[in-house]
Amino acid sequence: MVKYSEQPLDTVFAALADPTRREVVKLLALGSRPVTELSQPFPMSLPGFMKHLSILEDAGLIKREKLGRVVSCTLLGGPMKDASEWLTRYREFWEKRLDALARFLYHQEETQSWHSPRPRSDRRSRSSANSTQRRRKSGARSPNRKC
Q1: Is residue 136 part of a domain?
Q2: Of 13, 31, 102, 123, which residue is most buried, by most CB within 10 angstroms?
């Protein structure tokens, strides 16, 4: 059985919870990029964008390297692999549960006869009691009526 340390997984899932950071991961999956190029599609300041990169770096999803004055980011696969393995384990669990539910529902359908709903014209009360009709609201004012 694979042992998972909850803290790194918590950090990875928290980092990937934000749509901006997921988009950064998607862009970096295509290859390493300079921070300035990576930040251009996002409508935020560079310091705000750098906070997103710090969260991704703390989760171990990216690494930053500085060559001269240019800082580039590269995607790291290890934490994503661990998260994927964790999700796969639970996907198998839910697939088994859903398959069991499908078998149960199929069995129920085969063993019970379902009645189709009656047409609206047949939906009268089965009670033998007489019911009184509601009084209708009055119509327009008559010309003889006093104010």
Answers
A1: no
A2: 13
- Residue 58 inside a domain? The answer is yes
122 in any annotated domain: no
Domain of 30, CATH number, reads: 1.10.10.10
Instruction: Using alpha carbons, select from 40, 41, 36, 39 the residue that is nearest to residue 52.
Output: 39
**55 lies in a domain?**
yes
pLDDT of residue 88: 85
Count of the separate structural domains present in the chain: 1
Structural domain range at position 85? 1-111
Q: Residues in the chain with pLDDT < 70?
A: 1-6, 113-129, 131-147
| Angstrom distances, CA of residue 86 to CA of 6, 40, 93, 140 | 10, 33, 11, 72
> What is the Cα–Cα distance from 93 to 132, expressed in whole angstroms?
58
Pairing outcome for strands 33-34 and 62-67: unpaired
Q: Classify each residue of 91-130 as buried b or exposed e, where b means 16 or more C-beta atoms within 10 Å of its C-beta.
A: eeeeeeeeeeeeeeeeeeeeeeeeeeeeeeeeeeeeeeee
The pLDDT value given to residue 1: 43
Q: What is the pTM of this model?
A: 0.58
